[in-house]
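subagent[fold] <- orchestrator: predict structure for attached chain, return tokens only, no commentary.
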Amino acid sequence: MLSSRGTLDRHVDLLLGILAFPARAVSLSLDEWDLVVRAARGARLLGVVRARLERAHLLDSVPTPVRAHLDGAWNLAAHRRQMVLHEMHAVAKVLAPLNVPLILLKGAAYIAQGLGCAEGRLPEDLDLMVPRERLDEAERALVLAGWAFEKTDPYDEHYYRVWSHELPPMRAPGHAIELDVHHMILPPTGRVRPDTRAMVAATVAVSGSRYRVLSPADQVLHACAHLFQDSDCTGRLRDLVDIDSLLREHGTADGFWTTLLARTSLHGLGRSLSYAVRYGSAWLGTPVPSDVAPEIARFGPGPIGRGAMDRLVGLALFPTAPDQEPTPSTAFGRWLLFARSMWLRMPPWLLAYHSLAKLVRGALLRRRAVAED
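subagent[fold] -> orchestrator:
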């Protein structure tokens, strides 16, 4: 049974309530604000809370001590935004002469488009996608310009280049954030393989920029896949908030929902979309047209699978209560979702090989550490 907000932990209920209905902030006590601020900071959503309050013209109603925390998170988000813009400029300078399609993903795309979900958000890196046939060319240009791979272990190199949908993370000297260069949105070894060529063909140019972004429907689907197909959901409430924001912003355009359903079928991402809509609607009030919601729900699992995911996602997605450690049931639920994410990324033989390799490497590293001590 999917938990309603009223049955969630107090800090989660308060945080979700403000995100969905900012006017509720007016009636919060300082003790309740303490829970909200710490929960939002743990979920990397404190700047987003401020953005939603500002949009609702409610910032002046926030107590002064709380406002200081919100403003600090806003300033940090603004700083991160400038780092992303700087990285975008540097990368475009190197890759533009190659005439390679440069497709921004996730946070960088939201910033470039000026979307509402970029306000107050804390971007961690620059995610860029280039067509697979141009990937080697783009990599050589970046390496010659000073970018270097942060993971140099031979096994990690092999993992990224053979089984992953992106190159190993890169960073240039003096640059504050990481560059992740993708050629797909999900691993090629995974159980779901979206139509990358169709995604690239439908990309949209960013005005006044050398960059492109995914079409609105594909952008939503990528966010859904990133959360429910390519992650273990642990501590990723921010990703669900991103999806909620994208659906609110793109969902008002004519024909969006019809296109979204068609692209969902094309890419095989119905299960991920169904989870995103189910949990977004329940916990954030994500608006979905009444004639579309049943169509999306049909992509979801049966009652047993749905019930299991409801329980596990409810354990994993939300930040742990301030001053508390995760309970054993929460830790076990998160482990099950981690196992699920690995199962979705790899066929059984590769998952067994990869797990064994990680165990052996871990044992060797521990033995080396003991020997050095």
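orchestrator: received. Logging for downstream: The chain has one domain: 5-372. Residues 64-95 form the longest helix (32 residues).
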